[in-house]
Design brief:
Keywords: Membrane, Transmembrane, Transmembrane helix. By secondary structure, this protein is mostly helical. The chain folds into 2 domains: 59 residues; 78 residues, no CATH class. It is built from 6 helices and 3 strands. The protein has a 3-stranded antiparallel beta sheet. Helix 4 runs parallel beside helix 6. It is flat. The N terminus is likely disordered.
Length: 182
């Protein structure tokens, strides 16, 4: 059996580096499709969510069936986990303008981590529970600098990779705050 040429073997450490810039023409087409299809996507997601709510109202009658409510809640969780507000196929205007610009992506990652850190510290100062985690940073935010930079910047502010849900450097980096000594 002949190996496929389009499947390139990649060293695992290379996955954590910056992704190569996408072709400008491809980005432009994806941007136009995003402008046209993303509103339709959002309407479809809202309609499906409203259908779930309608089914839940009718399903209240069916709660006498053992396990129905638990199964319905699992279905809702699966829907929420699988459906993204910003799907992977869409390209926003900042992404179109700054494709391959490492400084832009570095600023995005730093801002996101600084925001989470300030929320965690504010909750700690107020002696309240911190925001729930793990916190995800999608490839849309770190494409030009790579997942390795996300981990490096996060560690500098007291974060680490989440152990609950593994990260996929080609899609998402999941972080959690390190425990703070009392």
């Amino acid at each position: 059996m002949k190996p496929r040429e389009d499947l390139v073997s990649v060293h695992p450490h290379d996955l954590w580096g910056p992704l190569p810039p996408r072709p400008a023409f491809s980005l432009l087409i994806r941007f136009v499709l995003t402008v046209l299809l993303l509103p339709v996507w959002w309407v479809l997601v809202v309609v499906i969510f409203l259908a779930f709510i309608a089914a839940a109202l009718v399903g209240e009658i069916l709660t006498v069936i053992p396990g129905f409510e638990r199964g319905f809640l699992r279905l809702m969780d699966a829907f929420g986990d699988k459906v993204a507000v910003w799907p992977a196929w869409c390209v926003t205007l900042p992404e179109l303008r700054h494709e391959g610009d490492a400084a832009f992506y570095r600023a995005r990652v730093d801002h996101r981590i600084a925001t989470w850190t300030s929320k965690e510290l504010a909750a700690q100062k107020a002696r309240k529970a911190p925001p729930p985690g793990p916190h995800d940073i999608t490839v849309r935010e770190y494409r030009g600098v790579g997942a390795g930079y996300v981990v490096q910047a996060a560690r500098a502010q007291g974060w680490e990779l989440s152990h609950d849900r593994p990260s996929d450097p080609l899609r998402v980096v999941r972080l959690r705050r390190l425990p703070v000594p009392a």
